[in-house]
Amino acid sequence: MRLRTAVLALALVAGACGTDNNTTGATGARQDCAPGSIAGAGSTFVQNIVQQWIKDYAAGCPGATVNYQGVGSGAGIQQFLAGTVDFGATDAVMKADEQSAAVAKGGPVLHIPWSAGGIAVEYNLDGVDLRLSPATLAGIFQGTITRWDDAALKADNPGASLPAIGIQVVHRSDGSGTTDAFTSYLKAAAPEVWKAGSGKDIPWPTGQGAKGSDGVTGAVKQAKGAIGYAEVSFAEGSGLGIAKIKNAAGNFVAPTEETVSEALDGASTPDDLKIKVDFTTTAPNAYPISTPTWVIVFQKQANAAKGELIKSFLRYALDDGQETAGRLFYAPLPDSLARKARAAAESITT
Q1: pLDDT tens digits, residue range 102-151?
Q2: CA distances from 29 to 14, 21, 49, 96, 111 (A)
Q3: CB 99 within 8 A of CB 298
Q4: What is d(CA 20, CA 105) in angstroms, rounded to the nearest whole number?
């Protein structure tokens, strides 16, 4: 039974319990709604699908307003800690000191996976269907491979017409969960080459910084021979090339809904839902630079009305909202993970 149907059935039996469950959506379907206004901030990775969820949720719930700003995972966590937003969004779980600060401020904090996607390696070259092994990709961002006609690139791309020009690396300049996942992948898949560590903000050995996934994509688009990384929806809409990445099974794989889901199927999911992705999974069609992304909320909401709206919006995002994923180049959560995420959302109290 889909969640919205289950919610409707419960609403008919038990009543609204503080929410406006009698609202009729734009499609004619009854939708669980709560009135009021909430705001969130954080990941640019998830920005495109969250904005679509907000639009679709509002169509069925005109009495509700949800605002979201893609400011980067690091800034989103800081705004959540400062209490200037009602929820944060991040592609990297909170550090221990961040989690402790949040708990001291408002009690237990939930990390709820709500979407997933691939991190695309986007590049600005004409007529090249680029393939990259982990060592070559790490060498480019480490700064040891500086030209497109390097022997390592020729080995990954036999027969390709690689230009004799320099490589311009573009990375994020702001604290970014996308950076955390990308550098964690390099650290796991090419430890003999990648020496710069991992995290939301690292000392990059080469390249230029740009703010947000849109900023990186824009910088790559402006410079012939540039290469960067961003969530697939940004890369797909840019007209840039997207590299196929060699996975641990030895296959060059593009980031798609199916290959991201295959990568996440092998992820470890602890009780706190802070999923640990295996970047070296040997699943044959897995796209290795795949990551879930989380919404972070206080389990005990100080404001009852906002708490009801947060739960209502998350119910939508984790159920019908998952059907939006493929259209926007994200991957829906695997069923087992989606069930755990819904249970976590329902554990929010007011």
Answers
A1: 999 999 999 999 999 999 999 999 999 999 999 999 999 999 999 999 99
A2: 19, 11, 21, 42, 30
A3: no
A4: 30
Cα Dmax for the chain: 70
To which residue do tokens 């406006």 refer?
20
- Give the global pTM: 0.81
- Exposure string for 125-150, b = 16+ CB within 10 A, e = fewer: beebebbbbbbbbbbbbbebbeebeb
CB 121 within 8 A of CB 131: no
**DSSP H helices in 143-272:** 151-156, 177-189, 212-222, 232-236, 257-265
DSSP 171: E
Closest CA to 85 of 50, 48, 49: 50
Q: What is the pLDDT of residues 161-197, one digit of tens each?
A: 999 999 999 999 988 889 999 999 999 999 999 999 9
Question: Under DSSP, is residue 272 helix (H, G, I), strand (E, B) or coil?
Answer: coil
Q: 């961002």: which residue's tokens?
A: 141
Look at residues 342, 324, 336 and name the one whose alpha carbon lies nearest to residue 52: 324
What's the pLDDT band for 27 if we cut at 50, 70, 90?
Answer: very low
